Amino acid sequence: MKIADDKVVGIHYTLKDTDGVTIDSSAGRDPLYYLHGYGQLVPGLEDELEDKDLNEKFNLKVKPEDAYGEYNKELVYVLDKSKFPDPTKVEIGMTFTSKTSEGEFNLNVIALEGDNVTLDANHPLAGRELDFDVEVVEIRDATKEEIEHEHVHDANGHQH
Description:
By secondary structure, the protein is mostly beta strands. It has helices at residues 43-49, 144-149, and strands spanning 7-16, 22-25, 32-35, 57-62, 76-80, 95-100, 103-113, 116-120, 130-141. The chain folds into two domains: 7-68 and 125-149, Chitinase A, domain 3 (Roll), CATH 3.10.50; 73-120, Thrombin, subunit H (Beta Barrel).
């Protein structure tokens, strides 16, 4: 069975940056499962997985535009600390969720200067080329319910 739309796919992966530093890996954990054709992976990786076979291994370099997009300087904002629920506890590295008419997005605190807090709404991997080592460890037909809900269900069924 080959990977195609409406297949549940399990992969083991290691994600590295261009310097060879591991960013994330499924090593020592359960595989990552996703429903193929529903945009649950970065586009460059999902596209490459199309038509792969069980046990197939490959390496893939994904350009920013096929991953988390180019870095957008217009998504960096400076706000006064007083705008935060507890201004005394704002620290670099914190993430806040903002709800707008366009949906939710994360804002990462990247700098503090006096009463100014610099927030970045770019994905932390935006603008970066990603290097994936991937092994396909499972392919199965998605259930009707998984297709209707557009995500994989575990052995116990529907878990939200």
